[in-house]
Amino acid sequence: DWLLTFTRHHRAMSDVLRAERYLYTQELLRGRQVRRSLVDQLYLSEAEATPPGSLGAQDAPSTASSGLGAEEPLSTATGDTGSPLSTGYHTRSSSSEEVATEPGASLHGFRELPAGAGTRTRTASELLHRQLRIEELEEATQFKAGQGRALRLLRAAYQCVAAHSELLCYFVIILNHMVTASATSLVLPVLVFLWAMLSIPRPSKRFWMVAIVFTEVSVVTKYLFQFGFFPWNTHAVLRRYENKPYFPPRILGLEKTESYVKFDLLQLMALFFHRAQLLCYGLWDHEEDQLTLEHDGGGGKKGAEERAPRGSQTEAGTGPQGESVVAGALTQDHIQVEVGDGLAEPPAELKPQDTKRIGLRFRKKRRESAEPADPTVAEGVMASGSEKKWSRPRERMTALGLRLRSSCLAVAQSVYQPLRCFFHDILHTKYRAATDVYALMFLADVVDFIIIIFGFWAFGKHSAATDITSSLSDDQVPEAFLVMLLIQFGTMVVDRALYLRKTVLGKLAFQVVLVLAVHLWMFFILPAVTERMFSQNAVAQLWYFVKCIYFALSAYQIRCGYPTRILGNFLTKKYNHLNLFLFQGFRLVPFLVELRAVMDWVWTDTTLSLSSWMCVEDIYANIFIIKCSRETEKKYPQPKGQKKKKVVKYGMGGLIILFLVAIIWFPLLFMSLVRSVVGVVNQPIDVTVTLKLGGYEPLFTMSAQQPSIVPFTQRAYEELSRQFDPNPLAMQFISQYSPEDIVTAQIEGSSGALWRISPPSRAQMKRELYNGTADITLRFTWNFQ
């Protein structure tokens, strides 16, 4: 039930799109021309569905001919057709269009329009309100419901992957780069983050063709460089540069390995799978929606008109020399060809032969415009041709230079125009559904921050054997750890500033710089610092994968734009216990609340002072806590004047009391039980005793190894306790150990080492012992291993 409730809007939208797709399919099967007004019958009331003499048989099929009736709801699976569909738009699909209706017409579920009203807005909710019946769709729904759960789960999983096949391609591309970590595999991830994910509304066919062709070329190139006759593929060279990150074939991705194209083939399969999905839905060759252009009122014509004056100025501009005129004519011809290819009204009715003729005419026009460059120059050439034949090569070189310049200008135009359109679509897109994914981006940054803290050794050269706690306790901060933390924290601050300013251009520039910097550092600088390959650095791979998730979310934020209202903590959007605990934990972090409040005040247009802003933030926090308490009271109502139940008091209160008592007394309890309960018996394996007189060389040194170390028995332990029973201090020490903790070391009576004392020292010791004028200390030391 909760799953059906959660997916209610998605299922309703699926029903609407399925009904529209069914009508289009039936119309195509009849061989008729598909028009946009075909699905209008789904959004008309019963009185409007068949007005007398309104539609012909060929323009729009009737409800009966399309299999539509007025007996049952559209789909019985939704279960909530009475509730309108909330899509966030006032349109049937993705565009808002008003259609003419008859005066006085009424919609089912809506109030009647005035007699003078001639337009109405079509909504998807009308289809859910209207009672209709499509027999084929109901049979398909019943057949799907009759399948097993496992089969439906597999089918749903496949449909989920197929619906997001571009994400599958992105994941495989990133996975291939993480495993390969070469300059060849670096190209596609950068293109994904800076081209594909920023394309509006979806990546173009050109990108997918570039990815497919690049992968195919990479596979063929890697295969060609696997032969053993290359000098860098010999066994000696491979052993010499094993685990060396800066081996040139390894950097270029041409190293001889067993699985050199495994991930490339997987990437190619994912790309072809996505291509098949685009071909299935007719989106492979779909560049721009013509209906959108018509709805915009000829935006493409306006763009062509904007280009035309510039072309006329170029064509009319003449200089003192004839070369500029020729260059202008050639450039204008090229611009005219591009404009003709990119007009909002494509020549769909032209055949391929007509297109070829147009291309030939343009070529002929270029030649004609190049020949009469300037009358003065032409006459001069004819006059001098009869007198000086040596000037012909010079003229040919001049013409060649003009053609070369015109071709360079044409190439520059072909590169500049797509880039200009790409950035214009990002910054000035007309249909933008603003969204807010800053919370997810911040979460990705926090995860990267934690990875750096607990895995900082992976970002340094000689820090693999050290621990961050031991380094900080010795007042030593590793440089790699400090640099990584500062860079990560700095990017989080910059991202917060861009989010508060809601600047898409700044976010785009930050995305480009960050993507290039991260890939340069992770795959070229970091291997030189750590002297480890990226493919063998698991912590760096995990950090990079989380950063790729951040890049994807950031690109989605750029493509959709920032919402109007962005202030407020994302934890305070819902009033439940989870958000309350997370918000209280957020407030307990030192200086984090103050830092966030100051950043919000700096980068937000406001008339409040800093102190007033802090007061407002405190008020919001207290109101959120109070609202959470009110929501709890609504979910668990308690009658007024009635005492709390004992189950609640002893259940929740008792647990809190036990928790506080454990916090207070657990350290002492742990210290007292660590020897008796947690301690493990660790008997010595070597005992060394030394007898030393004063500051002279040791008199006696002897060791006892494993055979001479005998375990202590229970009888011997009882005798020892009986012997020292009168001495409480000794018994306190003995009672801390059990017989298993005690061993007996048998020391030989003779020393195992010679007494290495010099004759003068020996005579001095004798004199001190005979005289007895000073005290001499006898030291007995022992050492256990």
TrEMBL record:
Residues 435-672 form the Piezo THU9 and anchor domain. Residues 75-98 have a biased composition (Polar residues). Keywords: Membrane, Transmembrane, Transmembrane helix. Residues 294-309 have a biased composition (Basic and acidic residues). One of its GO terms (cellular component) is membrane. Its main location: membrane. It comes from the Eukaryota. Residues 163-285 form the Piezo transmembrane helical unit domain. It is found in: Membrane. One of its GO terms (molecular function) is mechanosensitive monoatomic ion channel activity. Residues 49-115, 294-324, 363-390 are annotated as: Disordered. The keyword tRNA-binding does not apply. The keyword Transcription does not apply. It is a multi-pass membrane protein. InterPro entries: Piezo, Piezo_cap_dom, Piezo_THU9_anchor, THU_Piezo. It holds the Pfam family Piezo_cap. Belongs to the PIEZO (TC 1.A.75) family. This is Protein FAM38A. It comes from Mustela putorius furo (European domestic ferret).
